[in-house]
Amino acid sequence: MKLICIGRNYAKHIEELENERPEHPVVFLKPDSSILLKKHPFVIPPFSNDIHHEVEILVKITKIGKHINEKFAHTYYDEIGLGIDFTARDLQSKLKKKGLPWEKAKGFDGAAVIGDFWLAKDLFKTVDDISFRLEKNGTTVQEASTRQMLWKIDALISYVSQYFTLKIGDIIFTGTPAGVARVEEGDKLKGYIGDNELFSINVK
């Protein structure tokens, strides 16, 4: 199983980190060892003092695909999920300045939260207008809709499949909106699609 992640897919998030708007989707991978185990807290790693939450809509691939035409991409997934791409921002910044890969800042143990359950795609009028949010200690800190994506879900599936064969069970993290911020010991993070709570994470 691959965790395929998309960076810089929301304009306001690009602005808040003062990044350059990309010409094409920014793609990176997380290892399966980065998945936070169910019912486990997120433990802040000792190598970072600036771990950021990044809430994201997730898509789970249901059949093998390569060079997928965008008009057929909707047939490669049936469910929508929610997760967090935890990022060691201080480490990422150092790596970016040196032109080095981000894996240590993005793929460490526990850095990928996958919600406790998935929602059937058919529950939504369109996957291009799904509202989601992240609450930290009862306050909404990130909130957006997939309509704000620079590249929508089907476009991402088509694009990624030009480089990586998509396999059953692969998960695509579709990018995070503005509002990313540092997490602290004792924080409680809850993620919602609409009124559905998909995960609740304690930070230690």
Question: Keyphrases for this structure?
Answer:
single chain; 204 residues; alpha+beta; Fumarylacetoacetate hydrolase, domain 2; 7-stranded mixed beta sheet; 4-stranded antiparallel beta sheet; 14 strands; 33% strand; globular
Task: Provide a brief overview of the structure.
The chain is an alpha+beta fold and 204 residues long. Helix content is 14%, strand content 33%.
The total count of strands amounts to 14
* Regions with little confidence, pLDDT below 50 for 5+ residues: none
Q: SS-based structural class?
A: alpha+beta
CATH class: Alpha Beta
Strand proportion, as a percent range, falls in: 25-35%
The CATH fourth-level homologous superfamily = Fumarylacetoacetase-like, C-terminal domain
Provide a count of the helices.
Answer: 4
- Which sequence of SSEs, written as H and E, runs from N to C? EHEEEEEHHEEEEHEEEE
